[in-house]
Amino acid sequence: MQDAQLVGAIAEGDRQGWAELYERYADPLYTYCVSQLQDRDAAADVLHDTLIVAAERVAQLRDPERLRPWLYAIARNECHRRRRGHRRLVALEEAGDLPDSAEDVDSGLRLDELRRLVHDTVEGLNPSEREVLQLAGQHGLSGVDLAAALDVSVNHANALLSRARQQFEKSLSALIVARTGREACAVLDDLLHGWDGRMTPLLRKRIARHIDACETCGENKRRRVNAKQLLALIPLLAAGGEITDKVSEENADPELVSYRQGLAERAGPYRRDGFPVGQTRWRRPPWITIAAVAALLLMLGVYALVPHAADRREALPPTPTTTTAGTLPVTVPVSVPSTTTTDPTTTVTTTTTRIVVLPPRTVVVTTTTTTTPPSSSQPPSSSSQPPTSTSSRPPAGTFGVTPPRIDLTGGKQAVTLSAKGAALSWGSTSSDKNVTVTPLSGSIAADRSVAVTIALTAPDNSGHATVTFTASNGQAVTVSVTWTVIS
């Protein structure tokens, strides 16, 4: 049966469907749980709970073809709920056999050495790298399925996987070169003095730096390391048939209805597509933090240049202030409209406009100063010139965003940004950290449009937010965003 057929069979309580699902997914799920918990008994308990939750919630899985990533998403949440501390990987002697493809890998090592090599390489990774790498390399998740299991966006999942693969290759290279290159490189031999044979993250970094700088060790790495093939050699563990028998009995027992419902409720909350919301938050990329700090420093720097209220009261009369929301710094020439006459008794009015850029707002401060000379009985001179004035024109172009309202219950939706009459640059801000815009900013050619994706990540509850798009001509358009979390 295909996954979609399995979903239908399980929803109807078909025992044959359960047997096939268990045969297909029990060992991979159990292996994943062991890698996360480092405890076989705890992994068996999590597998049991995962299957109970699956039986209770399978009817809410919107796309039955995505059964596999859905099961991993449930198992992942259960593992994070059960995890206590950090312990070493399961003993190598307990692992299953390597796939037949292991014999195709030419690393200059025997198969038993290769088996130990893969195990030690994975042990040298940090837990998050290990998890992403195993989901992709060992369990075959990629793209939208990997993203769904991790409860992140596809771009975020791809970035996590790319980094994990790089770290795996670095660790693998360090391990192979360390075990095979000491005789050929005296510097490496000194670096590994007293080494116990285990690869740690710190030692991995030191050896990697040496490989980059050493021609001999670099050539050894290129000749021996094939990380892509070795990635698929992490062995599976056998789950055992007693778990599926227990799950089948509990699913058929009417007295355990509340127990099953309790497990399913604990595994939530759930998104509208049926996937559970992730129990852990992935760290934001460093550039987001850097950008936030830079914006704060810019704000503080500009604030220091703006006169304080007390200073303005001494130097200026009451000042009307207009604030326009925006996200992009806009350079506008300072204009000084003036009215002049040849007669000294004529009132002179001077208007000065200053532009103060404060992310994410542009504040336009207009100061009007009126000077009236002492009154005189003489009439105004007939030679006075008509008043002249000069004012700046607003930037051309019309900025638009459609639609004005979107529902992100499904995870993401596209909106269209348009520029009419002139090319415009634009930026965006979101009122909720779980609502993201991709890309965050950009430009639009005259009389053209671009598509932008607004996505929802890891919502805790149903809610609403706003996303504001601001163009370089000062126009700002707000999109209303809503979503519903169905538990």
Please report which band the strand proportion falls in: under 5%, 5-15%, 15-25%, 25-35%, 35-45% or over 45%: 15-25%
Distance between the termini: 29 Å
Largest sheet: 5 strands, mixed
- Assign the structural class, choosing from mainly alpha, mainly beta, alpha/beta, alpha+beta, or little secondary structure: alpha+beta
Task: Give the strand order, joined by hyphens, for the main sheet.
Answer: 5-12-11-7-9
Key traits:
single chain; 487 residues; alpha+beta; Immunoglobulin-like; 3 domains; 5-stranded mixed β-sheet; 4-stranded antiparallel β-sheet; 16 helices; flat
Can you tell me about this structure?
The chain is of the alpha+beta class and 487 residues long. It folds into three domains: 3-266, no CATH class; 287-339 and 348-368, no CATH class; 398-483, Immunoglobulins (Immunoglobulin-like, Sandwich). Helix content is 43%, strand content 17%. The chain contains 16 helices and twelve strands. The strands form three sheets. It has a five-stranded mixed β-sheet with strand order 5-12-11-7-9, with no helix packed on it. β11 and β12 (476-483) form a beta hairpin.
How is the topology of this model organized?
Elements: H1 3-11, H2 15-37, H3 40-57, H4 67-82, H5 111-123, H6 127-138, H7 143-150, H8 154-180, H9 186-191, H10 201-213, H11 215-224, H12 227-230, H13 242-252, H14 257-266, H15 286-305, H16 309-315, E1 321-325, E2 348-358, E3 361-371, E4 398-402, E5 405-407, E6 412-420, E7 424-430, E8 435-438, E9 441-444, E10 448-456, E11 463-471, E12 476-483
Parallel strand pairs: 5-12
Antiparallel strand pairs: 1-3, 2-3, 4-6, 6-10, 7-9, 7-11, 8-10, 11-12
